[in-house]
Specification:
alpha+beta; 6 helices; four-stranded antiparallel β-sheet; binds adenosine-5'-diphosphate; binds magnesium ion
Length: 119
């Protein structure tokens, strides 16, 4: 087993609904430590650079706009197999397809506004 660190972002739909604490609880219950976090407002340029890999996708422009629509909480999660573990805690990209008990199932509003990023 390996201790890993992984990037997590609590997205604008979640900060808008005051879900930062509820989401952080999901990480902590599963044994991930929040070793750093900061609430920031992304610029459009930062969002575009961050999601550059998706720039040919139809949803890219809207996604970048959404990611700048309110504050986000950028954080570093640490723990055993943190990368795989965080994916499991988050659930599938589309909340409609996410497993019961995952963050995206319980809090996500749509395939775009799905409350958390992990990578
Ligand atoms: P994940 O965040 O699960 O790694 P992707 O890397 O495929 O998912 O997509 C990045 C983000 O883009 C998603 O979290 C979501 O906010 C948005 N997104 C993905 N697919 C769609 C889509 N079909 N329509 C709108 N937004 C999408
Ligand atoms: Mg991705």
């Amino acid at each position: 087993m390996a201790t890993e660190r992984t990037l997590s972002i609590i997205k604008p739909d979640a900060t808008r609904r005051n879900l930062t604490g509820a989401i952080n609880e999901r990480f902590e219950i599963r044994g991930l430590k929040i070793v750093a976090q900061k609430r920031i407002h992304l610029t459009l340029g930062q969002a575009q650079k961050f999601y550059q890999i998706h720039k040919e996708r139809a949803f890219y422009d809207d996604l970048c706009k959404y990611m700048t629509s309110g504050p986000v909480v950028v954080q570093v999660l640490e723990g055993e197999q943190a990368i795989t573990e965080n994916r499991s805690i988050m659930g599938a990209t589309n909340p409609a397809n996410a497993d019961e008990g995952t963050i995206r199932k319980d809090f996500g509003e749509s395939v775009e506004a799905n409350s958390v990023h992990g990578s």
